[in-house]
Design a protein that fits this description.
- This protein is mainly alpha-helical.
- The radius of gyration is 31 Å and the shape is elongated.
Length: 454
């Protein structure tokens, strides 16, 4: 761990830095500055390449390549220059504009200086930059990571499909299931939210100071500015917001964050269930000889990965509502209180990524304790009460449910008492034989089949 990591106030940039390093490409201060530079340069190039803009100085392809390199070759050293300018301007977007002007001058293109940031308000650059960073993270990082994670969940579901197991409702023994089916439940739920996140494409606006193209219209009223700016926004593979105030209303971002919040709840459920199965000794954790479970109890093998995931998912879900609620509300045409909140968007995703990392690690350590699972299920003949009363109903026996309720509720049945109960039932011999052959291990319905479904 570096000195900088050791001195970080946030564990995201300290303890967990290596686990989420790829997020630096999307949500760091450097990423934001670089994306702003990219947006400013691409707007300038877009104008230069659009024939209807007669007011622009003439340029050639070689000059365009020089302009393009300003953002393509942008690095930490260049970002430091922007931060130095910001100390003077006390305005982050203006610092980017000044930086670009200086870069143009350095390659002999000072004639373009006045056209950097033309017709733009800072929020045009900012909303597009944040949308672009979030969209790139969503498509390049979040969705691939989710797909990979869920693929492993499905493998476990299929692998453990035939391991019959007691289920527990309200913490009490319930009808048997299979270990694989319980993991299939999570695969199915994660897939649902993964699809919702896949639909959460980001949007941006580029319509000036209060959303009305005021400066654009003064510049040239003959140009179809909505059409032009839509084409520009679409070049980033983003949705276009024509109607806005100074800010883009962030409803698509809120839709994404809401879907992530819902996904987090499913992952929290998975973390807690894995923890409970470990505590019941249904799942065992592979032991590393070098790891320590407790500083005073040498025997401990704690489910720390699932506890870590639970904690970080809770942090993500505590931040998301705050970010959503702030970004959807702005006084009149705009106030600046959303600015500092926007800088924390990456934290919502960072805590999720840390959790996915921990869950991946924890799940790979798990193996079913088949002996324990089988022993508990074999000793739980009372869970066949459901099967008995169902067959009794089929045989048109009155008060079937209440009869079995009196005989089994709050009681434990063994094989012998179960057989005696069946032998004394007034049902047909075919059904009686079927129930006599039935065991708790066999009474899993379609659990194995469902666990193996694609």
């Amino acid at each position: 761990m570096t000195k900088e990591s050791l001195l970080s106030i946030s564990p995201i940039d300290g303890r967990y830095k290596n686990k989420i390093k790829e997020l630096e490409n999307y949500f760091s201060e450097f990423a934001l500055i670089k994306t702003r530079v990219e947006v400013e340069i691409r707007w300038l190039l877009f104008l230069l390449n659009t024939k209807s803009f007669k007011f622009l100085p003439s340029t050639n392809k070689n000059q365009h390549k020089k302009i393009e390199k300003i953002y393509l070759n942008f690095n930490l050293k260049e970002a430091s220059k922007v931060k130095s300018i910001e100390k003077i301007t006390n305005h982050d977007v203006k610092a980017v504009e000044v930086y670009i002007v200086k870069q143009l001058e350095s390659v002999g293109l000072s004639k373009l200086s006045e056209f950097v940031h033309i017709c733009c308000t800072s929020e045009d650059i900012n909303n597009l930059s944040y949308a672009l960073m979030v969209e790139r993270y969503r498509t390049e990082c979040l969705l691939p990571n989710l797909k990979s994670f869920n693929k492993e969940i499905n493998k476990m579901a299929v692998k453990w499909a035939n391991i019959s197991m007691l289920s527990f409702t309200h913490g009490q023994k319930a009808s048997p299931t299979s270990l694989g089916k319980e993991f299939k439940n999570f695969y199915h739920r994660i897939s649902f939210h993964q699809n919702k996140i896949n639909e959460s494409k980001q949007s941006a606006k580029f319509n000036g100071a209060v959303g009305n193209f005021n400066a654009h219209y003064v510049l040239d009223f003959k140009i179809d500015w909505p059409k032009i700016t839509k084409k520009f926004i679409s070049s980033f593979n983003l949705e276009y917001s024509l109607i806005s105030s100074q800010i883009e209303f962030k409803d698509n971002l809120v839709f994404l964050l809401s879907n992530v919040e819902n996904l987090n709840n499913v992952l929290l459920d998975l973390s807690k269930d894995a923890w409970l199965y470990i505590s019941k000794d249904y799942l065992k954790q592979k032991i590393s000889s070098t790891e320590v479970g407790s500083s005073t109890m040498p025997h401990k093998v704690n489910p720390i990965d699932f506890e870590n995931a639970e904690g970080n998912l809770s942090l993500s879900n505590s931040l998301i509502p705050a970010v959503k609620n702030k970004l959807q509300i702005s006084r009149l045409q705009r106030d600046l209180s959303d600015s500092t909140v926007s800088r924390n968007i990456g934290l919502c995703f960072a805590y999720l990524e840390i959790s996915l990392n921990s869950l991946n690690k924890g799940l790979k350590k798990l193996e079913p304790n088949k002996k324990k699972i089988k022993e508990e299920l074999q000793e739980s003949w009372e869970v066949l009460a459901e099967a008995i009363q169902t067959v009794m109903r089929k045989n048109k026996i009155s008060n079937s449910y209440d009869t079995i309720k009196k005989l089994t509720r709050g009681k434990e049945l063994n094989k012998e008492s179960y057989r005696n109960l069946i032998e004394n039932l007034p049902i047909n011999e075919v059904d009686k034989t079927k129930l006599l052959k039935l065991t708790p291990i066999q009474y899993t319905g379609l659990a194995s089949y469902l666990a193996k479904l694609k």
